[in-house]
Input
Amino acid sequence: MEADMKLHDPHRPTWSRQIEFTLAGIGMAVGLGNVWRFPYLCYRSGGGAFLVPYVFMLVVLGIPLLYMELLLGQYMRRGPVQVLKNVCPLLKGVGLASVAISFIMCTYYNVVITWALYYMFSSFRTTLPWQDCNNTWNTQNCTSTPTNSSGEHSSTASQEFFNLKMLQRTGGLEDSGTLRWELLLILLLAWTMIYLCIFKGVKSTGKVVYFTALFPYVILLALLINNVQLPGALEGIKFFIIPEWEKLLSMEVWVNAAAQIFNSIGIGFGSLMSMSSYNSFNNNVLKDTLTIAVVNSLTSLLAGFVIFSAFGYMSHLQGIHIKDLAVDGPGLVFVVYPQAFATMPLAPLWAVMFFFMLLCLGLDSEFGMVEVMVTSLKDSYGKELNRYFKRKELFVLAVCSVAFLFGIPYVMQVGIYVFQLMDHYTAIVSILFLAFFEVIATCWIYGVKRLSGCLEEMTGKGANIYFKFCWLIVAPVLITVILIFSIVQFKPARYEDYVFPGWAQGVGWVIALGSIIWIPLGALHTLWVLPGSITEKLRQSITPYALDRKSELDLGGGGETVHPASPAITSEAKTENFQFQTSL
Output
């Protein structure tokens, strides 16, 4: 097939089996957010009421945009930087921004894996260390079994283990404290595990995901079977599945549902786009899209049953309503759930299984974020990197080593505040801006017709009317609404009762701009290097580039770029355009 001959790069590795990409995609999409963020949003948004907008956003936003990213990555066989540069030269900075966000997130996301490992190692004993208050780190206000009669200043044994034993946290950012050497060594172990799983690229990652993507479901099912037999579990499940219909009138619930679909599947992060670039050219990308999206959402529902059955159990023990449980972010996984384990039969066994499951979920997502950086840098600077790193394994080692160094602040006593600040401004602010411009570049500027043409060239059949409608109207409108609402309703970062000072909020915005700034910088660079008047520059900057793959292979990568809107460009202009394409 001619298209296959032109676009297939024999030097680019591919997945050994297509199922490996599907499992890697599921592993990337299914992460820690499915276990804590989805149940937390359900908890805060009226239980079952949240499921209605969640399913709606999955159908009209999640699946169409995932389909778009996978088909572009597979068609152009490049990471997000090169894909966005070819789709819309003016917005090539979106690809760079996705790499920047992936790097920032992989540095602090791995600290959650570090915490999971710490808890898992601490569970290998006959009595869990958060089961009672007879430990050196416990305070006089500690209570092992909180009830509705507990004082307002009391704290649970699991809270004190998390805050006083593992984190040994300070009072705020003003006091940085000292380095937690135990956590530093575990962070190094976590990065070593990640490196050993991905250093061979898709060949090694493809083998690891058979276990890391599938084993969490075994543990989730085991936990569910155990939890539903506990007293009060049924009340928790009822809270999860029975909607409070009045909550559907709140705009915030619908925006939260869209944001959860967005962050869970990973739209805008570039991870799945990078992974799909290693697919065979004629792969049925729609099948992968549906599998990844549906399995991701079903996993969230399964985790919801597991978590809410535990909520029901905890409310039964404490004699309070489920609504009154203290649940928030990481505390759900590292405070509330361990507290439930402490009263179960065979508590250490369930604890080890649960935290090992978190390890598997975290590793899969971390694979994707690191792969974005490796793929994008190799695509853009392959020849230069080959001069310094003779083997890809050495380059991956360098990336992991730098990310490890950037993760050191998170394992200091002040680390939980740094983590919360980074998560608030990166995962919430930056990704929404990035996704907005990605959708504008692909759905409107590159256009639905070209997207459908790419699909037809790969599979012999273009996109149907449903996907065209979602790409052209629904996705751009919904993301615009989400972005506007998020800006209007934006709240400064905080952690429990600690409100971050003004200077810290400023640092947070600088962190957000560290990724967003690449979008305007990329646009300015595009307009600077293109030839002609301002009008001609603008016209060319929003006209997609077509890659001549045959020339690219003849030149050993980074071949000549042909601008379809400029057939009469001079040789000097062609050279300048080529330099523009191979820059950044």
Summary: The CA atoms of residues 97 and 163 lie 34 Å apart. The beta strands are 142-143, 155-156, 494-495, 498-499, 546-547, 561-562.
